[in-house]
Amino acid sequence: MSKKIKILSIDGGGIRGIIPGTILNYIESEIQKRTNNPDSRLADHFDLVAGTSTGGILTCTYLMCDENGQSKYSAADALNIYLERGGDIFSLSFWRKLWTIFGIRRPKYSVDALESALHDYFGDTMTADLKRPCIITSYDIRDRKAVFFNKVDGVNNPVRNYKVKDVARATSAAPTYFKPARIKSAIDAPLVLVDGGVFANNPTLCAYAEARTLDFGKQDTPGDIAFPSAEDMFVLSLGTGTEQEPYYYDKAKNWGMVSWIQPIIDIMMSGNSETVDYQLKQMFKAVKKQGSYHRIQPSLHNAKSQMDDVSPQNLNALHEAGLVYIANNEEKINKVIDQILAD
């Protein structure tokens, strides 16, 4: 029998990307121990990786290749983007607070630190040169349509081939936080894009749909199934922490446009993620393959839910939230690793 097509999907959530980054770092480390191969990487074991926003940045990092065609970065390297550069990316000076009126008049943050970090990690690498097929989401505000970046689309097609750093910038261009991304393909076809979380904060269903269209026997991936269905797939989907802040009627009944901005972003993100999780559970249940779909959505515990809280205390709390999930769900994670390594 052929191997299952293995799909990894990572939600959006700003600095909360530390949580899935922590869990995936643990999974990669355990894979290295079990295979007795310290050079083994996540991209060696998945056929397709999907990400939105912060999940899109993680996707790009896991799929970057070195000059020998091997994974350039480890999962620990990906996690360090957040732990080491997060404070700079979400830095807010006193003067910027005044100039933007705390994010009301202008985007809250400058893109300089974000673009610098993306350039440092991805350089001028193109999507066609990523290690595996992928789906990275963004939204075109000029032509009003969803945009899906994929390695496969860029191969031998300069119209759909983009710099990885531009794709990472586009998928994470969260409205109110950063200005839209204006990027061009290899033949200068322009796009004006914002964060894919506005329509697909949980990109797992997008990944499933993309996998259904691919002949993996013609791709450089571990699997070789053509146009797989749910019966042929293993899916690991990671969230960036459950949203726990309630909104009460006595306050919400008097909210206007400004007051609703932050709550509606939170509700749209968590609501989309939960809806996609429900849809995938039902799809795998229908084919009696519930054990082939895993959703990991840890509690935030002591961490803050804000996507841009980069205080040292919150960075540590987000990292601890991932570690606590690992400690409390050892059996589930071991089962996931078993299936990743299974034929």
TrEMBL record:
UniProt cross-references to Gene3D superfamilies, sorted A to Z: Cytosolic phospholipase A2 catalytic domain
GO annotation (BP), single: lipid catabolic process
Keyword tags: Hydrolase, Lipid degradation, Lipid metabolism
Motif annotated as DGA/G, chain positions: 195-197
GO MF term (any one): monoacylglycerol lipase activity
InterPro entries in UniProt: Acyl_Trfase/lysoPLipase (IPR016035), PNPLA_dom (IPR002641)
Name the record gives this protein: Patatin-like phospholipase/acyl hydrolase
